[in-house]
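Quick one:
INPUT:
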């Protein structure tokens, strides 16, 4: 297994190199530059030219890419043109909020999806099963942005149960400590629930189908013919095999939640990495945008690797290659 992990990580290096080159070329093809929207309409052309020269925006693309790549290899992601701060510091201010949101959304997703998938399978054909399937169809058909706006209207503005916008109260942030942390959790509840509502569909669907398929398999029939108690048949034979697709989707779920946070954080104005990514694209702040895209790419690769390892732990008969 360790050789496989090392090989996967080595393969990641050329993949990231190719991805970084593609990202940089696409950024160069976008209209405008990082100074667009950063300067006033009455800026003198000479000052604008000096600013472009200062930031190296007049250099050929390959010189800009080589300068950026060598700096990244030295641990320097560059400076944000919009915030006039190091990219690492800008992302560091937001990553905590996104991690909190992702952890809560993942927890809510499994707390909702696993019980519903199990209950729907064990009560196949009943009103509970049909209701669960209707729930999955509704969740699958609603866009992320629309669901976020509906939850804001119902649970925040109408009922007043949750704050509609922001990641923390200003007074709580100033107080720090547990006050600030509890305020962050309170603000993350509604966007995390929104992400969980939309992220449960695949888990419920696969878990339900796997339980139904395993229930009629030969090894389950043999276990029952030998007089194995039904609860033991269900937990040791049916559920254990049915959980493999759920474990297999864990990595994809992590990536989905992180990528889905881009839209959720924008709707809820939640100050995380997703909202930072959108603002960096709008402001042509390419150092920040490139760093975030590279982060998502590394996260995606590592999540797939972790998923493969988890599957081998659950079922030792499976070996990753």
């Amino acid at each position: 297994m360790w050789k496989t992990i090392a090989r996967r990580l080595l393969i990641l290096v050329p993949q990231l190199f190719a991805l970084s080159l593609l990202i940089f070329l696409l950024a160069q093809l976008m209209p405008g530059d990082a100074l667009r929207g950063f300067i006033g309409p009455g800026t003198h052309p000479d000052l604008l030219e000096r600013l472009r020269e200062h930031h190296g925006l007049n250099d050929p693309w390959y010189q800009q890419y080589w300068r950026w790549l060598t700096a990244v290899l030295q641990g320097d992601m560059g400076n944000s043109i919009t915030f006039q701060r190091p990219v690492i510091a800008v992302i560091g201010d937001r990553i905590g909020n996104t991690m909190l949101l992702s952890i809560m959304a993942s927890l809510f997703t499994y707390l909702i999806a696993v019980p519903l998938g199990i209950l729907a399978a064990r009560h196949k054909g009943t009103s509970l099963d049909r209701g669960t399937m209707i729930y999955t169809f509704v969740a699958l058909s609603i866009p992320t942005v629309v669901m976020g706006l509906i939850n804001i209207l119902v649970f925040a503005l109408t009922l007043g149960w949750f704050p509609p916008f922001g990641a923390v109260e200003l007074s709580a942030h100033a107080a720090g400590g547990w006050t600030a942390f509890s305020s962050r959790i309170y603000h993350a509840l509604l966007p995390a629930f929104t992400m969980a509502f939309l992220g449960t569909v695949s888990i419920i669907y696969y878990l339900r189908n796997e339980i139904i398929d395993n229930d009629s398999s030969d090894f389950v029939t043999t276990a029952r013919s030998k007089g194995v108690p039904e609860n033991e048949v269900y937990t040791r034979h049916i559920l254990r095999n049915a959980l493999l697709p759920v474990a297999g989707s864990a990595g994809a779920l992590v990536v989905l939640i992180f990528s889905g946070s881009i839209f959720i954080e924008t709707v809820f104005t939640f100050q995380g990495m997703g909202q930072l990514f959108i603002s960096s694209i709008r402001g042509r702040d390419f150092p920040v945008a490139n760093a975030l895209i590279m982060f998502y790419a590394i996260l995606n690769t590592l999540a797939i690797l972790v998923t493969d390892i988890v599957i081998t732990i659950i079922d030792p008969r499976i070996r990753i290659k």
